[in-house]
Amino acid sequence: MNDLFNFRRFVIALKRLFFEKGIKLLASLCLVFSIIAMLLQYIAMINPREYSNTREIVLAFSLVLGPILYVWIISDEHASESKSIAYLLTPFSVLERWLLHVVVGLSAYFSLMISGYKIIDIWIVSGIHDRISSSQTHLQKAYVEVLQELTAFSFEPIFYIPLFLGIIISLTIYIGTVYFKKNVVFYSLITLTVVFLIFFGIHFFVAELIFGEELVFEPRSVFPFGSLVIKPQNTLYRTYNLEPIWTLKKRVFIVFVPIVAMISGIYYRRLKEKQL
Amino acid sequence: MITLQNFSYSYKKERPIYQDLDLELPPGKVYGLFGKNGEGKSTLLKNMVGLLYPTKGVIKVGNAIPKERKPSFLADVFMIPEEVYIPSISPMSFVRTYGALYPKFSFDHFCEYQDKLDVPETKNLKNLSFGQQKKFYIAFALACNTSVVLMDEPTNGLDIPSKSQFRKLIAATMRDDKIYIISTHQVRDLDMLLDHILIVNRGELLLNSSVGVITEQLAFNFYPQRQEHATVIWQEEVVGGYAVVEQNMQETETPLNLEQLFNTSVMAPDKLKEALLSSKTTVL
User: Fold this and answer.
1) d(Cα A101, Cα A265) in Å, to the nearest integer?
2) What's the whole-number mean pLDDT along residues A169-181?
3) Mean pLDDT of B4-14
4) Spatial distance between the Cα atoms of B219 and A219, rounded to a whole number of angstroms
5) How many CA atoms lie within 13 A of A163 on its CB side?
6) Are the C-beta atoms of residues A179 and A192 closer than 8 Å to each other?
7) pLDDT tens column, B237-253
């Protein structure tokens, strides 16, 4: 028997997930889609001019916060001792458990989420276009032009940031389920927030060591690998924005890919070492 | 064969539960594991299946190291915990999904055991009561035909007819290549079933002896008056007289009384040791 990975066993693991949690997972996705659809439709009805900006914000939040419930349902295997015993003694390898949660679970969520979002967006944008053509006379010309330019969403590199943040939050919850029995999501998110704050603090501390009083304390200066705002001492009012040499897309991948790899590696290790 | 070498385990460093325990459990027997509350019976079972890791020493089940939890090992052991977890699915989905993971699983055996334990038909396992869920789980565990089955309080929650059926099933499914370990406080449910007794107290193995040796060396008697003769190992006042454990000086054997044996091993371990030492098969 192959103790590392067996395709038949993996299919059974998938089947088990589908039988035991399929309905809950589907319900969690429906909940996220319902919230997105209601929010976007509301904006499109009330203030269509703002739709273009709103949908970007909604998508970012859906990617970052959307997977929380879904991931918690998938990884809820240690909520009680009897549940944990049943899970740990089921003859699956660590790699199969890890692949099922991290690769299959997360890729399923994000692909469904992005596809679903796109469908909702197409539906709402087409609705806006229909309304413009039927009520054009009541709208100012410029406003109509702006809305006519509105097309269904195409994903810009900027959305890799919420996507990666969503993956990091999901992986943190996975790890949290191995450590915490109750209030897993709460404790996991608190832990992640503390880690982020420490990183932000270290970044700002190093920047201050280098630039001293010239560093301007504002949100942009706090994010690691972002820009820094400085005000040289010989200038009175002028501030300078120091941008990294790499493009945003490159920075996102250089920073987030190792973090995701590291956290998923920690999850693998914790699954392997998990005791009751 | 389950082997423990220098096995130590502690939840907290300052209070070890087991220290340097050596134990060998050959197959073909039903072992009874007894001890007071919190003395480490469940801990020992959990270490044997890899749910907990020894803080020192090695545990081996056959050639496998439980703490590695390899699928090949997990497919050949089954643990029935005191409280079982049953997912909210249909019995057939459960059997099809989980049964496929155990190479020796027999659907026919499962149906037979389910009938014997009188598990009612249901569309969803969550609709069953605690005792019914446990019976379903026991039927499934035995149908998996794994080499090792560890049971922690298996008769808790079972009704009276099911306890009797449980005993019959254990006896009927026992084979020379199997090991059954039953940890329980319900001694009267199992006294006729066990082949070997293990008693743990404060991390120490007070008794590790086959039932044959125990009944050959010891007599479990009841007297209306207190006994003062030298063969008495331990006696305690019970309703209407004294329950006495004494050296067996007769040719005939008395039935094993697990409750008396347990009390003797805890209250008079040295005397019990002395009485059983005459048999070479006893390890204390």
Assistant:
1) 13
2) 93
3) 88
4) 83
5) 16
6) no
7) 999 999 999 988 887 88
Residue A209 half-sphere exposure toward CB, CA atoms < 13 A: 6
Q: What is the residue-wise DSSP string for A84-144?
A: HHHHHTSS--HHHHHIIIIIIIHHHHHHHHHHHHHHHHHHHHHHHHHHHHHHGGGS-HHHH
Structure tokens belonging to residue B101? 């993971």
Pairing relationship of beta strands B218-223 and B204-210 according to DSSP bridges:
unpaired
Evaluate whether residue A2 is within a structural domain.
no
| Structural domain count, chain A | 1
Query: Is 70 exceeded by the pLDDT of residue A135?
Result: no
Nearest CA-CA partner of A228 in A214, A217, A242, A248 = A242
What is the distance between the alpha carbons of residues A58 and A156, in angstroms, rounded to a whole number? 14
- Residue count of chain A: 276
Q: Is residue A133 part of a domain?
A: yes
Quote the mean pLDDT of chain B.
Answer: 91
List the domain range (segments joined by +) for residue A115.
Answer: 7-275
Q: Give yes or no for residue B93 having a pLDDT over 80.
A: yes
CA–CA distance, A36 with A62 (Å, rounded to integer): 8
Give the per-residue pLDDT at A149.
Answer: 66
B87 with A19: Cβ contact below 8 A: yes
**Residue A1 domain flag:** no
Chain A partners within 8 Å of B97 (Cβ): 12, 15-16, 19
Which has the closest alpha carbon to B209: B222, B195, B220?
Answer: B195
Q: Which of B10, B43, B51 to mutate to test the interface with A (most CBs of A within 10 A)?
A: B51
Helices and strands in chain B, H and E counts: 10, 12
Question: How many residues are given for chain B?
Answer: 284
With respect to residue A251, please indicate whether it lies within any of the assigned structural domains. yes
ipTM rounded to 2 decimals: 0.91
Residue A4 to chain B, least CA–CA distance (Å)? 8
CB-based contacts of B24, cutoff 8 Å, min separation 6:
B1, B2, B3, B4
